[in-house]
Amino acid sequence: MTETVSTGNEAGADAPQSQGERKGLTLERVFSTESVHPYDEITWERRDVVQTNWKTGETVFEQRGVEFPDFWSVNASTIVTTKYFRGAVGTEAREWSLKQLIDRVVKTYTDAGQEHGYFATDADAEVFEHELTWLLVHQYFSFNSPVWFNVGTPSPQQVSACFILSVDDSMDSILNWYKEEGFIFKGGSGAGLNLSRIRSSKELLSSGGTASGPVSFMRGADASAGTIKSGGATRRAAKMVVLDVDHPDIEEFVETKAREEDKIRALRDAGFDMDLGGKDITSVQYQNANNSVRVTDEFMRAVEDGTEFGLRARQTGEVIETVDARELFRKIAVAAWECADPGLQYDDTINDWHTNPETGRITASNPCSEYMSLDNSSCNLASLNLLKFLKDDGTFDGELFAKAVEFIITAMDISICFADFPTESIGKTTVDYRQLGIGYANLGALLMAMGLGYDSDGGRAMAATITSLMTGTSYKRSAELAAIVGPYNGYARNAEAHKRVMRKHQAANDAVRPLHVADTQVHKLATQAWADVVALGETNGFRNAQASVLAPTGTIGFMMDCDTTGIEPDFSLVKFKKLVGGGSMQIVNQTIPRALTKLGYQPEQVEAIVAFIAEHGHVIDAPGLKQEHYEVFDCAMGARALKPMGHVRMMAACQPFLSGAISKTVNLPESATVEEIEDVYMQAWKLGLKATAVYRDNCKVGQPLADGKSEASKKDQGMAAAAAGSSSEVETNLEPKVIEKVVYAPTRKRLPKSRVSRTTSFTVGGAEGYMISGAHDDGTLGEIFLKLGKQGSTLAGVMDAFSIAISIGLQYGVPLETYVSKYTNQRFEPAGLTDDADIRMAQSVMDYVFRRLALDYLPFDDRAALGIFSAEERQRHLETGSYEPLVEETGSASELTAGSSGSSSEVETSVEDDLGGRVASASERIETTEASVAEKPAPKEAHTSAELLELITGTAVDSPLCMTCGTKMRPAGSCYVCEGCGSTSGCS
């Protein structure tokens, strides 16, 4: 039985105010039309929603005849139908129209607003209802998922996605922690807490025994989270565990998940299924929580100075052990390098921006690290779709954005009046402090459409001014609401501290230096909003202790058809799109033509650049694109992936204008070092972030990415060597392997004296070369010789040595496909166009050579696994949807080789068609307001943008598979989201 606490007036909600005491809000209609219901302005259509697990072929959901606006994407309607429609499928109680869903929520909010005195008249209540409905149905914003799950249903009216719990140093409190987390997970939300009050394993109990320590109690909570699978079918459990850096068990906490990764490797190599979601992964502990270390300025300064730092007893506060601060900081970075945990939370920064310090310190956060407030509290979230406010002239409509914020923040506050909470203490704290979390999505797409680089001064200035305007407008409306329905109950106690933080926000806004017309306009509005906040707050106080956060916006981002989530940059330039009636297309990001037009390119130039992106998935060497404009199209993944500090600098630009923090992970390449992670953590502190987390590609074992046991084992040994930094230790670990190699030493298979060889002349980017390849009697490749550069030159000598090394490797049994996978996609000059009809573009000579060898010597199935096809095979895929060779139609296998049939002009034409070039017909493109965007059928192997990017670039996207539909997820804030079904791995 769910222990849900109804707040009502009993829990401290404001009673309706008499008109003699206060007058409600008088609202002006901004978005909707007088005397016309928002639903009547748009065209509705019926759709069938059928969801399949791509891996098993099993139909996991089916509902036919659902009703949505014609401009909603198939993806958005599918996710809303499967996630948010209530009632048993196949019964009359089941919702079948978006109208029913929105009405269920909006009417509940409106009725509660009227009951609690928010509106001056019934007419104002109607305006509120219509404006909120218009904004939702037109995808201008969305409430967080629990609102759609619960509001207006017989279920408890839980509206919060984020919870912070507390635990004390007693067994009663610890067991109560397990219980409270369980109820929160069951309701589809996530929770975080700080375990630092629990005595360490180095301290004594009153009975004389030794305490277990917080890490031991984490095991029970982790098992509970893994069992509940929060929200039933809605999402998996999400939780955050925080420990203070001065806790005596801090080193054990830091290394906890890294040690479990070692266990995963050992079990995997023994043959157990240790992929994420695998049947044996449940034997590994601590995998259901994000771990964070709460560091202080004192500790970070000790790291800078290289001094000692004291670890303190929990009950007395005395120093019981000293450690080298740099060494501990290094251990944190090594653990994050190995397994992405722990992240850091910067305690002094967090509490310096705390509006309620007289009530208590902020000790923890929600699972995704954006909500930071008092213990035993909750926060309901809503996010705006920023791209909806981009005007035709390429500027941001700040005035319209501010109007939307006013309506949304009003609705969010109203929800606290009728909301239910999982525990009485959470309900009381939330009603007393009324924390809200307004935020936004689509920042990355907005900046690109405006012609601004994500990692640029212009991009950061635009993001900062928008964030400042959002929070300033929110607190302005909060002060206006305080005049109508009263300030939050805890305001009087914290009034001076709250007003001090408002002045800090205002000062940060004054420090922003706009760089162009668009952000100057928004900055002026933000400056006025903060002036109003300070003035109104002095008179009225504030209705809400907190107003804004930047959440991951995973599922609700897809509900709004956003290209990017939260504060994230665009994921990739090429996207996967589902079509009405079935099928899918591969399209170029539709903000790209808008960005190119904004940057001054002519329609024919835009068309050529878009065609290039459709082929390559990046803009490097795109025809006519200036190099200074490359940064506008930098993405989270791909050839021009953003640098780690680019993510950090964007977070730092927005952080001063947020009540809470930012859910975001700083992505690093697999080659990143421990020192780079240390630098990210140190710079994040210096730049004033409240929290940061990192993820190094392929650092997790429990991902469906390993090529096999032996290759993964070798890679793990290399990781251990890099992290340990001690050659002697590594040599000791590898000694048994050396003995094995002696026993099973490979033998060399030499080529016959007379053998079949093939000579290929080639040109790459204007550089000419020759390749001679010799084969064994069975046709397998045994040697290569490369001629490039003048005889006697350094280049010619290097190529001779390289050829000998590859040839000996082939003769000792190294598979050709191994060389192909390693050397293709290497980029260096010369690069560019080739004279080979099968390989029109090469990123380097190595890229060309090994693609050519694959086409000449590898069977079709092996090449297909590597994504290497001949021109004829690519043309066949366009015509039939399959690359498979039709041997019965073409005769001999030799005719399947590149250029063996048809004229060269025919081959070139087919290649142009396959690459989405200018010869594509009108039926193969879609029109946008600015320009046509290259579009063609998506490969059958791709079911999401992440999988499509892998096929285009030939590189792996390091994300887990979705538990529901089996497709590859993509990063969203500090968690992952599935664009196939909307499932998330966190609390967004």
Automatic annotation (TrEMBL):
A single MF term (Gene Ontology) = ribonucleoside-diphosphate reductase activity, thioredoxin disulfide as acceptor
Provide the catalytic activity annotation: a 2'-deoxyribonucleoside 5'-diphosphate + [thioredoxin]-disulfide + H2O = a ribonucleoside 5'-diphosphate + [thioredoxin]-dithiol
According to the UniProt entry, which residue ranges have a biased composition of type Basic and acidic residues? 708-717
- What EC identifiers does the entry list? 1.17.4.1
Which residue numbers delimit the Ribonucleotide reductase class II vitamin B12-dependent N-terminal domain? 48-139
Q: Which cofactor does it need?
A: adenosylcob(III)alamin
Instruction: Give the UniProt family note.
Output: Belongs to the ribonucleoside diphosphate reductase class-2 family.
Q: Identify this protein by name.
A: Vitamin B12-dependent ribonucleotide reductase
